[in-house]
Design a protein that fits this description.
Length: 232
């Protein structure tokens, strides 16, 4: 595959953007972890170390969910090339920011875009690869939501996960035209499917490793409620 095509593929998949937002994700994770740790230390006092050890898996999953949320917002709700231009400014290599122009929603069926362009012409082999790669990436992007959310929320269910995935991605796609990006119905479909797939993976883990999942779901709130019930 020619270098130009490889660069187009990497650009479409957002590899460069994913690398550029790592510092933002790390900073958000560090702040969250410190706040959460301080709150638990205040609540549990002398039992802090023992309780934190019991809820370690749950806290890690909460942290991963936060990292996913921050990363998704940074990737989808900023103008195209925003992070690249920002880092160029911070490193004194450039002082220009992306120009934001209003774009449009593309109400095009998912399968149609796999084989035919918006102008009605058949896609080339490489363009077809780009389309499929984009849809696969959009499905994979929302798998963490369906996988992690049921672990940290006892009220999560299949309908709620599907609705949360749809609502979140619909809001993203609705906002994108206002920041110079295309709002695409394909992304809504793929992201929703990704959330559903993540929930199915959660159910599979629950069936195969129920004890491990119970440890993952044990939270600080559960321990506090248990202590309250015991004292009563």
């Amino acid at each position: 595959m020619p270098d130009v095509e490889v660069k187009r593929l990497l650009s479409l998949l957002g590899i460069r953007t994913a690398i550029e937002i790592v510092p933002v994700i790390v900073l958000a994770a560090a702040i969250y972890w410190l706040i959460r740790r301080g709150e638990h230390k205040r609540l549990f006092g002398a039992d802090f170390a023992d309780i934190r050890r019991k809820i370690r898996l749950n806290e890690i999953i909460r942290l991963l969910l936060l990292c996913w949320l921050v990363g998704t917002v940074c990737i989808t709700l900023t103008p195209t090339d925003f992070w690249h231009q920002l880092w160029r400014m911070l490193t004194f290599r450039s002082f220009s920011m992306p120009t934001v122009t209003f774009r449009r929603w593309r109400l095009v069926p998912l399968l149609w875009t796999h084989f035919v362009t918006y102008s009605g012409h058949y896609l080339s082999r490489f363009e077809l690869i780009l389309q499929i790669a984009d849809n696969v990436e959009n499905i994979a992007l929302f798998v963490p939501l369906g996988l992690f959310l049921p672990v940290v929320s006892k009220k999560a269910s299949f309908p709620k996960i599907a609705l949360a995935s749809f609502a979140f991605t619909f809001c993203i796609e609705f906002v994108q035209p206002f920041i110079g990006r295309d709002g695409n119905i394909d992304d809504v479909i793929c992201n929703t499917l990704g959330g559903i797939l993540g929930f199915l993976i959660y159910l599979l883990i629950k069936a195969l490793f129920p004890k491990f999942l119970e440890k993952c779901r044990l939270s600080a709130t559960d321990i506090m409620n248990k202590d309250l019930n015991t004292s009563e």
